[in-house]
Design goal:
Helix content: over 70%
Number of strands: 0
Distance between the termini: 12 Å
Radius of gyration: 17 Å
Order of helices and strands: HHHHH
Length: about 160
């Protein structure tokens, strides 16, 4: 990757990280309001869904920049996580650490539940597990992006 493309990708990643941070702030705001009513549980679940989706959008930026596609089929979400957890020799380093992959895979399942479980109430115990994961994820993904960009910068010709 040349320096101009790297600069463009870095700007896109920073922009997406800014959006991820905004979702994280909304999640924290919803958590501060409490988990006392079904509406509050739904609101927090929706913000966790949004956090996952905003990170998935970041992953799609990287996949498109290097591989020109995201994937198709019913399991493309999982394939995207797997693909970006692995380096592609001579193309790009891995973006996701193992810790990030684990949390994202868990939240991928929760996102599916929130998105497709019509008429099903969010259970507090299930939500609490995913709250913990979501709170951990923001710091993990921020570190992964910094590591990824630093590794890319090492490969740019001077």
């Amino acid at each position: 990757m040349d320096s101009e493309r790297l600069a463009g990708l870095t700007a896109e990643l920073k922009g997406q990280l800014w959006l991820i941070e905004k979702v994280n702030v909304r999640l924290q705001s919803r958590l501060n309001a409490g988990l006392d009513t079904p509406g509050q549980l739904d609101s927090v679940a929706y913000q966790i869904h949004n956090l996952y989706c905003s990170i998935e959008d970041l992953l799609k930026l990287v996949a498109k920049a290097f591989e020109n596609n995201v994937g198709t089929g019913e399991n493309w979400h999982k394939v995207l996580l797997l693909r970006l957890s692995q380096p592609i020799e001579g193309i790009r380093p891995a973006l996701l650490s193992e810790a990030s992959w684990d949390v994202l895979d868990q939240l991928r399942g929760f996102r599916h539940l929130v998105r497709h479980a019509y008429g099903k109430d969010i259970e507090l115990t299930q939500l609490q597990v995913n709250i913990t994961a979501a709170q951990k994820l923001y710091q993990l993904i921020e570190q992964d992006i910094h590591t990824f960009v630093a590794e890319l910068e090492k490969t740019v010709p001077t």
